[in-house]
Design brief:
The complex is a heterotrimer of chains A (about 100), B (about 500) and C (about 130). By secondary structure, chain A is mainly alpha-helical. Chain A is built from 3 helices and no strands. Chain A has a single domain, classed as Helix Hairpins, CATH 1.10.287.3510. Chain A is about 75% helix and about 0% strand. In chain A, α2 packs antiparallel against α3. Chain A is elongated, with a radius of gyration of 17 Å. Chain B has a domain of about 220 residues. In chain B, about 75% of the residues lie in helices and about 0% in strands. Chain B has a two-stranded antiparallel ribbon. Chain C is mostly helical. Chain C has 2 domains: about 40 residues, no CATH class; about 60 residues. In chain C, about 55% of the residues lie in helices and about 5% in strands. Chain C contains 5 helices and 2 strands; from the N terminus they run ααααββα. In chain C, strands 1-2 form a two-stranded antiparallel sheet. The N and C termini of chain C lie far apart (about 65 Å). The chains are: A mainly alpha (about 100), B mainly alpha (about 500), C mainly alpha (about 130). Chains A and B meet through α1, α2 and α3 of A and α5, α6 and α9 of B.
């Protein structure tokens, strides 16, 4: 049995990588990937904790969050596509009609 | 199984079915925009009736679906706020998106966003809370990009990135809470955290609070709000400020009280600093803006600071003997402020939408800002109804009696003084005075400057929505007793018995 | 090795598999390099040995339509995920006693779910997201 601490360590590392990417990257697709990293690190946590609990609430939660992450990616890509059609780029530094 | 058991959830069921129906009919019929609008309006009115009838009946306090959804006075209060806001958006949209392409999608997304907010206000379980939160967020991401202009899409992109990062934070916090306590029920988490407090619970709570603070636009997490409120379609900005933001409060009311209990109430000072920073920074930044929708956005940040005072007062009061009454009073004040602010901000953004329509009719110069304050010059003569309603909303936002804004502030600030937080109450009152500066600036543009164009006739939908909102704002101010009683009843749900 | 197996022990087969997986293709490529006779000519080095001349650039722009397909596919694909927990509930004897409109509770809920997904499909077809251009 792998101790649960290792899973939490893995999830924390994933979360930190995602956060680092969000701060340093300015490409729309890369930002979306970082957001997926954040969400999936939480999923790892949920499933790992659920294995040590008498109930399966965590796994159910993870199922819901996977479905919601997919829907979120769908909406995000739709916005990115429309953005690309208008601006011709998805580098978010070049998109500055509003003051940041 | 008895379906009659589920009647208190009729409003949600009706709106969900209606949203699916609108999508289906809208894709099968051509030019169905207005029909869908009236259909959605009818659905929202019936839902409001159902919610109110449940709120009045003795059926309150029931729980459904394996203890995940609770129908109590608090949830019904928030649901009524969300439904009223959505109704106003639909009424105003009837003239905005007459037979525009995709109007049916607008209404379907609006209905789904409303359902999401309603689910959040009823949730007593983290799973349903998260699902409702995401339903409302995803619908509003799409709504913010609805007109597909450059500004819209940029606003939507920023909103999307900040919003999804905040839900990721929230989910990570939820996962840690589940790991520490072994349950996803909020009540179970509270009792487990109280009996066996682990440092990881503190980390989890910080993640969760950060996630909510993004939605509530409290200060370190407010950066998205001005850009999004400026760039999104004006009515959608209204929905975000009046509905989606209140959803953050609805969730925070349920979860942060757990935090306050688990943290042995000592952390209310952290919330106090957060609230003080939020209201001050929001008001100071609003003074320098020339774009009216940005002014509204920063004023909305400041108002979030006043509302966040509720958490502080509850934290301070529960540590005192006979503090429960003060705590109840402060929650009621926060709820009244939420109700009043939802109406005032919605009305203000509808007025901004009218001005946007007017500027478009004048012929917008390339590269100029449609929401610039100079476009409000002489609005009192160009669009008298809009200008008068906006005047009332500005006074209400500043907290001048007899308006809804005054009642909420009065109750909340009073309870802050009773709880011994005089400095915070004084700061809040000073901030209200400061906010008068930029509200009066807009008013002086509307009534003292020469008009820049001819008189226009306001589209009917906008005018009706504005007048209804104004009646609501003044009605609550003149006759606050029933609303106050209802808010007190809702506040009692949260306090330990 | 005596005593409780370590966490790493469970992964020894996996590690062996990964090492073998890395060795085999390298060995195969190396064997070809060493054994096979090498006589290059211009005809042999062209892209298609069948004799067809390649035309235009290799980097072409895909139609943006692919994106719509991808988004619609991802949503439907992930929603199917909910069928797995549903199977579990459906097979559960204790939960089969609940009846709604004369049918099993689980069946009713899945019907609702599928109907909502179907409406989504109708929407995608009618808004011409799935039309090939």
């Amino acid at each position: 049995m792998i101790p649960v601490e290792l899973y939490i360590l893995l999830a924390s590392i994933m979360f930190t990588i995602g956060l680092y990417g969000l701060v340093t990257q300015r490409n729309g697709i890369k930002l979306m990937m970082c957001i997926e990293l954040l969400l999936n690190s939480a999923n790892i946590n949920l499933v790992a904790f659920s294995a040590n609990q008498p109930n399966v609430d965590g796994q159910v939660f993870a199922l819901f969050s996977i479905a919601l992450a997919a829907a979120e990616a769908g909406v995000g890509f739709a916005i990115l596509i429309s953005l690309y059609r208008l601006y011709g780029t998805i580098e978010l530094d070049n998109i500055n009609a509003l003051r940041w | 199984m008895d379906l009659g058991f589920y009647t208190p959830l009729g409003a949600e069921a009706l709106l969900t079915a209606l949203a699916v129906l609108v999508i289906l009919l809208g894709s099968l019929m051509k030019k169905s925009g207005n029909l869908m609008g009236y259909l959605s309006l009818a659905g929202l009115v019936v839902s409001l009736g159902l919610v109110m009838s449940t709120a009045m009946s003795a059926k309150l306090g029931q729980v459904f679906f394996f203890n995940t959804i609770s129908v109590d006075a608090l949830s019904q209060f928030f649901k009524a706020v969300f439904l009223v806001v959505s109704m106003l958006v639909v009424i105003a949209s009837l003239s905005r998106y007459k037979d525009a392409k995709g109007a049916d999608e607008f209404y379907a997304l609006l209905l789904l966003a409303t359902v999401g907010m309603m689910v959040v206000s009823s949730s007593i379980d983290l799973v349903t809370l998260f699902v409702g939160f995401e339903l409302a967020s995803l619908s509003t991401y799409a709504l913010a990009a609805f007109d597909k202009s450059k500004r819209n899409l940029e606003a939507a992109m920023k909103y999307f990135i900040f919003g999804s990062v905040s839900s990721a934070f929230m989910l990570f916090g939820f996962s840690l809470l589940y790991g520490m306590t072994g349950t996803t029920k909020i009540a179970g988490i509270a009792s487990a955290a109280l009996s066996n407090f682990a440092p990881a619970t503190l980390v989890a709570l910080i993640f969760v609070i950060a996630g909510f603070a993004f939605k509530m636009a409290l200060v370190p997490f407010h950066m998205w709000a001005p850009d999004t409120y400026e760039g999104a379609p004006a009515l959608v900005s209204g929905l975000l400020a009046a509905g989606s933001k209140k959803m953050g409060f609805a969730a925070a009311f349920r979860v942060i009280f757990v935090a306050l209990l688990a943290l042995r109430l000592e952390w209310y000072l952290a919330f106090a600093i957060l609230a003080a920073l939020t209201m001050t920074l929001g008001n100071v930044l609003a003074i320098w803006q020339n774009n009216v929708r940005r002014i509204f956005a920063y004023s909305s940040v400041a108002q979030a600071g006043y509302m966040a005072m509720t958490f502080v007062v509850v934290g301070a009061a529960l540590g005192q003997p006979n503090g429960a009454a003060i705590a109840q009073n402060s929650i009621a004040g926060g709820l009244l402020l939420i109700l009043g602010h939802a109406l005032m901000k919605m009305g203000a953004f509808i007025a901004a939408a009218v001005v946007g329509y007017m500027v478009l009719k004048d012929g917008l110069k390339e590269g100029s800002d449609p929401d610039d304050i100079s476009n409000y010059a002489g609005l009192g003569r160009r669009a008298p109804i809009t200008a008068f309603c906006l005047l009332i909303f500005m006074f209400a936002l500043a907290g001048i009696p007899p308006t809804a804004g005054y009642i909420g502030k009065f109750v909340l600030f009073g309870s802050a003084i009773n709880a011994g937080l005089v400095w915070l109450a004084v700061l809040a009152i000073l901030n209200s005075a400061l906010s008068l500066y930029y509200y009066l600036r807009i008013i002086s543009y509307m009534y003292l400057k020469e008009p820049a164009g001819p008189k226009i006739s306001e589209p009917k939908g906008y005018a009706v929505a504005l007048i209804l909102t104004m009646i609501g704002v003044i009605g609550i101010g003149v006759y606050p007793q029933p609303f106050y009683n209802w808010a007190m009843q809702a506040a009692a749900v949260l306090l330990p018995h | 090795m005596a005593g409780e197996p370590m966490a790493v022990d469970y992964y020894i087969p996996l590690i062996i598999f990964m090492i073998m997986g890395a060795i085999v293709p390298i060995a195969a490529l190396a064997a070809v390099k060493i054994i096979a006779p090498l006589k290059p000519s211009r005809k042999k080095r062209s892209t298609y040995e069948g004799g067809l001349c390649p035309v235009r650039d290799a980097k072409i722009q895909y139609s943006v339509q692919y994106y719509l397909f991808a988004i619609v596919f991802v949503i439907f694909d992930v929603e199917v995920l909910f069928l797995y927990p549903w199977i579990y509930v459906y097979a559960n004897k204790a939960l089969q006693q609940f009846m709604v409109f004369g049918m099993n509770n689980a069946v009713f809920e899945m019907l609702l779910f599928i109907v909502v997904l179907l409406v989504g499909l109708v929407y995608a077809v009618k808004k011409e997201a799935l039309r090939w251009v």
